[in-house]
Every structure is written in C-alpha cells, then in structure tokens.
Amino acid sequence: MATVVDAARVTTPGNTVWRTCAGCGTLTPLPPTVDRCPICDRSDSRIAVERHAATGWESAHRYAAILGRIEAWALLIPDVSDAERLDHIRDALTALDQDTKGVG
User: Fold this and answer.
1) pTM value?
2) Domain limits at 32?
3) What is the pLDDT of residues 71-104, one digit of tens each?
4) Is 49 helix (H, G, I), strand (E, B) or coil?
5) In this structure, are 9 and 47 located in the same domain?
C-alpha cells in the first residue's frame, strides 16, 4: 500500500535525499551537495531572521526594565508618598507607550 512518503519521493528528483536543513532544522529533500533548504539558503532571509530575533530580544529587555521600574516604585522603595509613586509609575508607562509606538 502506498504511503504519503512514497508520494513525496515520486515528486522529488532522483538525486535528492530527505535530510534536516542546517539552517532551520526542517526535514526537506536536498541534493547531496546542499545542506540548507531554499529558504535558508537565501542570505537576505537569514539576515532578516537574525535582525528580527535581535529586535525581539531588545523589546523584551526594554519591557523587563520598565516592569522592574514599576515594581520598584510600587512595592520596593520605602518612605515615598503615594503621589510620588504614581508619578514615577506614570513616567514608566509613558516610556513603555513611546517604545511600543516606535516599534510599529
């Protein structure tokens, strides 16, 4: 009985072997001299993925820093009036709002 794998083998060239892509790790039919799938083989896509990942980490670090400021003013800093706490928390939220507007 034929299986899906057999059908995939029929539609791929005879010199290709199903291997794991060195770039993204997906299983794909690759010729013997190639170790990356067509998407990962494009240099511009690799650069875009790396840039996207770096931007994501930068955003995560900014959010964590702002949340740390809010937590500090809300809970950890002693002998401060509630009005001063709220002012500093509003400043932190304003900075967060400006960061999110700058990203999009």
Assistant:
1) 0.45
2) 4-40
3) 998 888 899 999 999 999 999 888 877 766 655 4
4) helix
5) no
